[in-house]
């Protein structure tokens, strides 16, 4: 057992894993990662600013997009200090309390994003399948209630499993497999009875992420059924094009989750670098890509973003 493992056995601090085998290149690696975090912050702030200041975007679809951008912004803020701290040499370890707090925000924000994507699919379903009642169904009051429900659903069910991490006995080497804290990482190095954490966490994943994915799929089956009933091919394409951005965002969110789950479940023989890369893709890919997707596919946001760019160049 290495010296670092022995010294951490009886400590309440945990060693964060950077990029195994690339320690000599951390300074160079910090450049692309700093750029990615900068793009995450600037891209999502741009989306929020455009939606707030452009009156034509004060519609249900864009209110949900603002919720998504705010969630992505918070995801970046929850991990930037440990990921860049490791690359810049400021951080090597993290306390148990800080690790639990970071784990809570990462998993809570993941559930929030899943819930927002479900709300956005409901918005597309109403807009295409019941367009005449769209404005009466998705009123500002209803959207506010949906937002509160998303917040409660994502934040109130996680504490039981997260708080219990504080009372587990961590007798295995305190070495985490990522540059940030995840629930599954902590319970893997615990020697206490983790059945509650395992069962409760699995129940949360099934009742939130999996259920949301199934409901999103059902909504698109119903949308497709409605679209195929439209006589005009031009109208069919027009209806489907309004869903392209949301479909891309759903794929960008769920594919990294599936990949990370597969790596954790079946990739124990893989290089630690693969685990770290998948973890960072899971955290950074959706917040990075969502502003790009909606800037490309949404004319109002693209036009306003280009206008802002023109002002900066002038």
UniProtKB/TrEMBL annotation:
Q: Name one GO biological process term.
A: cellular response to lipid
Q: What is its main location?
A: membrane
Decide whether keyword Magnesium is in the record: no
Topology in the membrane?
Answer: Multi-pass membrane protein
Does the keyword field hold Transmembrane?
yes
What InterPro entries does the record tag this protein with? Answer: GPCR_Rhodpsn, GPCR_Rhodpsn_7TM, Olfact_rcpt, OR51/52/56-like
Keyword terms, alphabetized: Cell membrane, G-protein coupled receptor, Membrane, Olfaction, Receptor, Sensory transduction, Transducer, Transmembrane, Transmembrane helix
Q: Which compartment or compartments is the protein found in?
A: Cell membrane; Membrane
Q: Output the SUPFAM superfamilies linked to this UniProt entry.
A: Family A G protein-coupled receptor-like
User: Pfam families in the record, alphabetically?
Assistant: 7tm_4 (PF13853)
In this chain the G-protein coupled receptors family 1 profile domain maps to: 43-294
State any GO CC term: plasma membrane
Membrane-crossing ranges are 26-51, 63-91, 209-231, 243-267, 273-296
Instruction: Give GO terms: molecular function aspect only.
Output: G protein-coupled receptor activity; olfactory receptor activity
Record family assignment: Belongs to the G-protein coupled receptor 1 family.
This one is known as Olfactory receptor
